[in-house]
Design goal:
Elements (H helix, E strand, L loop, with lengths): L8 H15 L6 H8 L3 H8 L2 H21 L9 H14 L3 H4 L3 H6 L2 H5 L1 H25 L5 H21 L4 H17 L6
Helix pairs in contact: 1-2, 1-4, 3-4, 5-11, 9-10, 10-11
């Protein structure tokens, strides 16, 4: 029977996450992952099976610990939840927080060469996008009960697209990311209303 690992798995995953987030899967070298995690290559392979296994653990932890934590309040009956969600992301991007400057780890993975070659990554990113759209749709329904279900669906699709665009732009153009996210509350308020 093999020895049990004598390291904190979540701390290793967090350290590897920062490398993958900064460099992307393909560009993250195993030596860089060894340095960041404090583990030798053999320990990484023993615990995670491969560099790809470590990346999968990183994406899973990010989805559970970051994405779902932020999405959870959406659709909980608070009509201001979507604005709060967007404000939280905007504040992090505006503060030039290192991780916010890197954009969304899952969206980055979805636009990387790995996603074009790997059905599992495509499925994970697609499932994430569907989960985000569903949460935003619930929040739009709470915010705009005056709209028909079809109008809520259409508005939610636009808001979700704006969020994805803002998170994608965060890596390259902070001002454009902030302007895109700032359009979500305006879109929420003005959708379907005609000028008097």
């Amino acid at each position: 029977m093999g020895r049990m690992p004598s390291f904190d798995r979540s701390a290793v995953v967090d350290a590897a996450r920062d490398v993958f987030w900064r460099r992307g899967y393909a560009e993250a070298g195993i030596a860089e992952l060894e340095e960041a995690t404090g583990l030798m290559r053999s320990s990484i392979y023993h615990a995670f099976g491969s560099k790809r296994g470590l990346f999968d653990a990183v994406l899973s932890a990010y989805l559970d610990g970051v994405v779902r934590t932020r999405l959870r309040p959406l659709g909980g009956g608070d009509p201001g939840a979507l604005e709060a969600y967007v404000d939280d992301m905007s504040a992090a991007i505006a503060a030039d927080a290192p991780r916010a400057r890197l954009g969304c780890l899952l969206l980055n993975a979805g636009s990387s060469p790995l996603a074009s070659e790997d059905a599992e990554v495509r499925t994970l990113v697609s499932d994430y996008a569907a989960e985000m759209r569903a949460a935003i749709r619930a929040a739009v329904g709470d915010r705009r009960p005056d709209l028909t279900p079809d109008a809520v669906d259409a508005l939610a699709a636009v808001c979700a697209s704006l969020v994805v665009a803002g998170l994608t732009l965060a890596r390259a153009d902070r001002d454009a990311a902030l302007a895109t996210l700032a359009s979500v509350p305006t879109t929420l308020e003005s959708w379907g209303r005609t000028a008097a």
